[in-house]
Amino acid sequence: MSTLLWQKQGVRTDAAVMRFLAGDDVLLDRELFPFDLRATAAHAEGLALRSLLPTKDADAIVAALHDLSDLWSKGDFVLDDRYEDGHSAIEAYLTERLGETGGRVHLGRSRNDQVLVATRLYMLDALDRLKAGLVESARAALDRARADAMSPMPGYTHLQRAVPSSVGLWMGSFAESFAETAELVGMTRAWINASPLGTAAGYGVNLPLAREEVAAKLGFARVVINPMAAQASRGKHEHQVLSAMWQAMQDIRRLAWDLSLFSTAEFDFVRMPPETVTGSSIMPNKKNPDLAELLRASCAVVAGAMAELQQVLSLPSGYHRDLQLTKPALIRATRITLDAVALIPDVLRRTEFKLDRMRAANDGAMMATDKAVELAAGGMSFRDAYRQVGESLDELRQADPEASLAARVSLGGCANLGLDAIAARIDALG
Ligand code: ARG
Q1: What CATH number is associated with residue 173?
Q2: Domain for residue 217, yes or no?
Q3: Distances from the Cα of 40 to the Cαs of 21, 174, 203, 221, in angstroms?
Q4: Which one in 145, 157, 232, 386 has a CA-CA gap of 20 to 30 Å to 169?
Q5: Would you place residue 2 in the very low, low, confident or very high pLDDT band (cuts 50, 70, 90)?
Q6: Would residue 280 show up in a list of annotated catalytic residues for this protein?
Q7: What rounded mean pLDDT belongs to the chain?
Q8: pTM of the model
Q9: Same-domain check for residues 368 and 354
């Protein structure tokens, strides 16, 4: 670690202590680095706007940050434990390139608001990607729902055969769920869309910073006004972002559960894409739905990260180094969520539905509820109709799932899936 911004003369840093303080953190800063570069450029421009930095110095800093960004994209600038963190690495680069001018960039900011703003931009970007992935997943589910809208399959409750249902209803449920979660992601984005930059260490600074102009440059909708509130949002916002991610992963977990269950020999309703299925090292006959299983388990990683945040956030007001440990949880959960969501559209598009098998799984007894409803609609009390059908279940030997589906005409029912309305909701998400 050659560059400690804060080192006092005569105090040697202990390598083991520094590793503990910063070892993993600087590697995680690789995720935040591009956002830190953007925010640093906006900060320099903001200083120039208020004549706190000569325009030519701000221009030189912005140009050098562009170069650093290029080096970074090409892999020619490596962030590692030569630096305490990404923030120090930027300042070190600027100082090396521009001398004293580089050192001017930190006027009016602290690493506390620097990490806040970089993390906020990282989260906004992650939410955009998540939303796009959910929209694509919703469209893929909708296409499957449309393609086999009236194909019968059993509807289960308690995992027991209950009433006739359809592929349209099953796949339409994922279209609507993914759309609903994408909306939640959008709301979460709006909720965190505020710039903490210019709040410095958590108490502001004795300068007329152009906070709102800098926020606008970075694309934020507004600023976090109170500097202590900005610090208080560290981890709090991360938790809400993870909560939205958890909802997405929970939708995915349910889909993964359905697919793994329906691909067993006992159900044999679906065949997952061959590339997503693995074999056994000992049992030559095995085809294992490992992808579905790991998608299912990934939800637990996000839940675990949320629990981590909840424990770390037991703090008084102000910055505490504890807050650094919000970063691994956020990044771990974000990576797994974005990786998982990106796989879903293809899984949905390429899973084979065995429509004959699904239809054949509708048995006569599953018509019982329809029968009772018909009798009650004809004037009998529903309770009497229920009893009468319950006593003569054996007579319901013949399943006619198509007729049952055709009669389910109220909005959302199999004959009136409302797929166009769901499509409009997806389209509104962009
Ligand atoms: N790595 C630190 C974090 O994530 C950056 C901020 C450091 N601030 C400080 N006062 N030591 O919190």
Answers
A1: 1.20.200.10
A2: no
A3: 23, 41, 19, 18
A4: 386
A5: low
A6: yes
A7: 95
A8: 0.95
A9: no
